[in-house]
């Protein structure tokens, strides 16, 4: 099939590459000419495990192309994917200007039947808004389909190639058939394509992200309660996760959810609910808990030093909002660094992938080190903020010799309490016993 993908951020690039991988001809278009040039030269603009191999293979085999010319991208496409940003507007609702702007541009260019698909996360009613724009600007036949994306950064290729489910929102028979054919190679694991109307499909995406964020905020509150009543959140997590109705995944307490989607999507769903005059109480609590959780580690640090962080030096391991990505959008680490700097502390940080992005945002306000142990030199304490594998089994002797004091604040519960007792550390994590 011939496919155009409009917007080559995370989702567009993964979508385009993975659709080419099953034999489709894909043209990706982006307004960022530097990015397009880079991709035309065979360079990937993002770090995503497993993507590079597929990216090069499909470029080399002539199935994956990049352009900054929308007309060229969509001329022969049967299906046009919109993978454009939907950032929060000033009032928290999703900003649809990219999506509706592209729909208008596309309407002015199409000459034959096209299926126009929203991959972007968009509020209920967006397909109707796109349809209204198209109706106003073209006489050509088209169908508007909602096809939300559920991939996670860091495992995006696997999520796209072997999805738990594919949701296709359309009542247009011709579009439904084309989308079914396009996705047939991806349902070989036996996981279903679920067809529905556009509105249900649009809401499914927000409901999925908001439900996952709810699980996280719930577990963060359980962790906070554990600390007050002398229970251990790891035990509670294992105890409840073995109940299949609850499930083992997404029950890890920490320093709050971040990333480009959970914060904005929970907020956007709450806003959509408010517009429908529905007070979605659970979502408001989920956001409030997350705001508190992002600051919890700094509160612990502050308490340990009797409220005075002036002149203290902290080593930070992990800046990305989660491991296996260089993405720092809404990363808890940024909030924590901001608080520490405001209180007169200094920071030396290491992250395997995200340091250039952090440097782009906060520059030289902190020091970046070449490897993880260098960050510890002369630091008063270590703060672990992202659960990269390299931080899971550190050399504790090195920790002891490089840190000024044997103090570790762990926002991701990586270390075994007994091990920390044996090594004689002061160790404070989330929802577990404080030792030392
Ligand atoms: N990042 C993720 O893991 C996921 C994101 N989503 C959703 O997918 C959508 C896109 O997200 P990301 O890929 O993260 O965004 P992004 O911000 O990484 O990329 C968007 C791209 O669109 C380009 N662009 C903007 N206006 C354009 C236009 N008029 N024509 C062509 N290109 C244009 C930008 O230059 C940029 O390269 C959002 O709605 C997001 O909520 C959904 C699932 C996962
Ligand atoms: O719409 C999106 O953009 C995507 O958002 C999330 O994917 P992603 O943001 O890549 O990352 P997650 O793995 O979901 O983690 C999100 C945040 O929750 C935190 N988290 C996750 C799981 C957990 O148990 N505890 C926890 O604190 C992570 O540290 C991270 O900050 C969803 O998992 C995807 O299904 C969805 O497609």
Q: Which sheet architecture does the biggest sheet show?
A: 6 strands, parallel
What is the CATH homology-level superfamily of the largest domain? NAD(P)-binding Rossmann-like Domain
- DSSP helical segment count: 17
Bound molecules: 1,4-dihydronicotinamide adenine dinucleotide, uridine-5'-diphosphate-glucuronic acid
User: Based on CA inertia axes, which overall geometry fits?
Assistant: globular
Distance between the termini: 62 Å
Name of the CATH architecture of the largest domain: 3-Layer(aba) Sandwich
The helicity comes to: 40-55%
Strand content: 5-15%
- Calculate Rg over CA atoms: 24 Å
Rounded mean pLDDT score: 96
DSSP strand count:
14
Tally of domains: 3
Indicate the low-confidence ranges by residue numbers.
none
- For this structure, the CATH topology of the largest domain is Rossmann fold
Alpha-beta content class: alpha/beta
Q: For this structure, what is the CATH class of the largest domain?
A: Alpha Beta
Adjacency order of strands in the biggest sheet: 3-2-1-4-5-6
Oligomer: single chain
């Amino acid at each position: 099939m011939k496919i155009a993908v409009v917007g080559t951020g995370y989702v567009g690039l993964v979508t385009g590459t993975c659709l080419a991988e099953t034999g489709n001809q894909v043209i990706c278009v982006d307004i960022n000419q530097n990015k397009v040039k880079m991709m035309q030269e065979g360079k990937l603009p993002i770090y995503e495990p497993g993507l590079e191999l597929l990216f090069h293979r499909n470029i080399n085999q002539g199935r994956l192309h990049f352009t900054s010319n929308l007309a060229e991208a969509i001329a022969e496409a049967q299906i046009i994917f919109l993978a454009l940003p939907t950032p929060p507007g000033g009032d928290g609702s999703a900003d649809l200007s990219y999506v509706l702007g592209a729909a208008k541009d596309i309407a002015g260019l199409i000459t034959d039947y096209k299926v126009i698909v929203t991959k972007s996360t968009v509020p209920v009613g967006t397909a109707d808004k796109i349809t209204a724009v198209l109706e106003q600007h073209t006489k050509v036949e088209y169908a508007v389909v909602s096809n939300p994306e559920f991939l996670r950064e860091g495992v995006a290729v696997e999520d796209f190639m072997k999805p738990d489910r594919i949701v296709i929102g359309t009542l247009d028979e011709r579009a439904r058939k084309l989308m079914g054919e396009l996705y047939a190679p991806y349902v070989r694991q036996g996981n279903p394509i679920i067809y529905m109307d556009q509105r249900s499909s649009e809401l499914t995406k927000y409901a999925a992200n908001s439900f996952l964020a709810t699980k996280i905020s719930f577990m963060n509150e359980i962790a906070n309660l554990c600390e007050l009543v002398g229970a251990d959140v790891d035990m509670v997590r294992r105890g409840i996760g073995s109940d299949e109705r609850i499930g083992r995944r997404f029950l890890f307490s920490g320093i709050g959810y971040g990333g480009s989607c959970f914060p904005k999507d929970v907020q956007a769903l709450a806003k959509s609910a408010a517009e429908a005059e529905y007070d979605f109480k659970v979502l408001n609590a989920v956001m409030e808990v997350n705001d508190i959780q992002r600051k919890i580690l700094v509160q612990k640090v502050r308490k340990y030093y009797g409220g005075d962080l002036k002149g203290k030096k902290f080593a930070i391991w992990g800046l990305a909002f989660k491991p296996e990505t260089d993405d720092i959008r809404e990363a808890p680490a940024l909030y924590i660094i901001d608080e520490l700097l405001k209180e007169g502390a200094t920071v030396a940080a290491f992250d395997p992938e995200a340091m250039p992005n952090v440097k782009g945002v906060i520059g030289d306000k902190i020091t970046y080190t070449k490897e993880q142990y260098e960050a510890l030199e002369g630091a008063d304490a270590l703060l672990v903020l992202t659960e990269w594998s390299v931080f899971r089994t550190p050399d504790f002797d090195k920790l002891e010799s490089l840190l000024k004091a044997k103090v570790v604040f762990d926002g991701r519960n990586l270390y075994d309490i007994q091990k920390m007792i044996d090594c004689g550390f002061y160790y404070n994590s989330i929802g577990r016993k404080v030792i030392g």
